[in-house]
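Practice problem 4.
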């Protein structure tokens, strides 16, 4: 007499609840992600008649200077003498680094000159000057 197997063992993984899990993960990451806004220091940018956008923003280091002479690099206040070291370190890590100067329109010119000189001493020669488009 032969015995027949009545049940077969399957090795499939049930995927019926997979879309629910994916949706919950997506919702969780959307709710918990914080979009970082650049706070910097408050500045009033000058107006330019012709502007050109930067193509790659991932290689840009923002250097802010306000009318009070305060200088900020990537949202951290720095002294003028520290610009050289900070920017040289960034330039060594990424040779494509571009310094984007965002200087208040009423800032003293010696502040801009000092920043340019420190950038030159640090070896960061690609410099971008940020302005607002207008007439």
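Answer key:
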């Amino acid at each position: 007499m032969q015995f027949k197997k009545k049940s077969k063992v399957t090795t499939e993984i049930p995927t019926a609840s997979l879309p629910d899990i994916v949706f919950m993960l997506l919702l969780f990451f959307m709710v918990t992600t914080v979009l970082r806004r650049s706070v910097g220091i408050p500045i009033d940018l000058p107006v330019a008649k012709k502007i050109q956008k930067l193509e790659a923003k991932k290689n840009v280091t923002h250097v802010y200077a306000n009318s009070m002479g305060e200088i900020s690099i990537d949202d951290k206040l720095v002294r003028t003498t520290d610009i050289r070291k900070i920017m040289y370190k960034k330039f060594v890590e990424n040779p494509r680094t571009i310094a984007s100067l965002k200087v208040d329109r009423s800032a003293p010119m010696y502040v801009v000159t000092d920043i340019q000189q420190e950038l030159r001493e640090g070896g960061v020669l690609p410099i971008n000057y940020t302005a607002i488009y207008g007439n």
